[in-house]
Write a structure and sequence with these properties.
Layout (H helix, E strand, L loop, with lengths): L2 H8 L3 H9 L6 E2 L5 E2 L4 H13 L4 H13 L4 H36 L7 H12 L2
Antiparallel strand pairs: 1-2
Helix pairs in contact: 5-6
Length: 132
Amino acid sequence: MRIGELAAQTGVSVRALRYYEEQGLLTAARSSGGQRHYPHSAVDRVHLIQTLYAAGLASRTILDLLPCVDANVNTPESRAMLRAERDRIDQQIAQLRQARDRLEAVITLSESPASGCTRTEVDTLVSATVHH
């Protein structure tokens, strides 16, 4: 199937499919005219790639996992890779929670009638939320 057909069947843009190919996540045969031709199994591959992206995995991590997927096996290494990605996401979540807490403190300060919302007040409040 041609790239436009694959895009239509998967709901993924042609540009994204080209990117997947550049990253080594998807392969296509080329016609003598240089057009890409994908096997029907590419639909499932694109759906898998989309699922892994939605799970927060980077292209490089997906590329490292694909041989396990293709061989229909999982290894201690592939599970460790997935756990490391989960831990990275957990760390990002913790950092976002801290940023949200600081923003909430600034909002609270700005809503106080006695507050002039000065830099000193904001710095003091933000500093206090960093240590909690």
